[in-house]
Design goal:
- The structure is a single chain.
- It is built from 3 helices and no strands.
- By secondary structure, it is mostly helical.
- The N terminus is likely disordered.
């Protein structure tokens, strides 16, 4: 695989690439990140299971409560939103252990790539939610203005 350099500052004195060395403190921090990511992924998995159980149970309540159809769609939406980040979290967890314990550069690259994908997803999701909030505020403002 060919290496690409973005600028000259990333090159050493003789044009050789600078090597990134991971300190012991960074290794400890990466293992801590792995533990917390694993915890969050397990909690997310439990949430997905609970939402899936709710989805399976909703048809039984739909006869008595017609509003359950809206809740069904909401649960499917939540389930769909949770799956991608969970996959990335488990990818990070899986890659970080051999990356740190065996000094496996490919696994570290994979963990960083999975982290980038997760953070990008969360960033885009945040932008979408903020845009929806702004639209809701505009709608509520215009509704209040038309009522007065």
């Amino acid at each position: 695989m060919e290496e690409t350099y973005i600028n000259q500052e990333s090159l050493g004195q003789a044009g050789e690439p600078n090597e990134l060395k991971v300190s012991e403190l960074s290794k400890v921090n990466l293992l801590s990140i792995r533990k917390w990511t694993k915890f969050l992924a397990i909690v997310g998995l439990v949430v997905i299971i609970l939402v899936a159980v709710a989805i399976l149970a909703l048809p039984f309540f739909a006869r008595e409560y017609p509003q359950a159809a809206g809740l069904f769609i909401y649960c499917i939406f939540i389930l769909a939103l949770y799956i991608y980040p969970l996959m990335k979290m488990f990818g990070i967890v899986k890659a970080l252990k051999p990356a740190v314990e065996q000094c496996d550069e490919q696994q570290l690259d994979k963990a960083v790539s999975e982290t980038k994908a997760l953070v990008t997803f969360m960033g885009v999701l945040t932008i979408v939610v903020l845009a929806l909030y702004a639209l809701a505020l505009l709608f509520a403002g215009s509704l209040l203005a038309s009522l007065s």
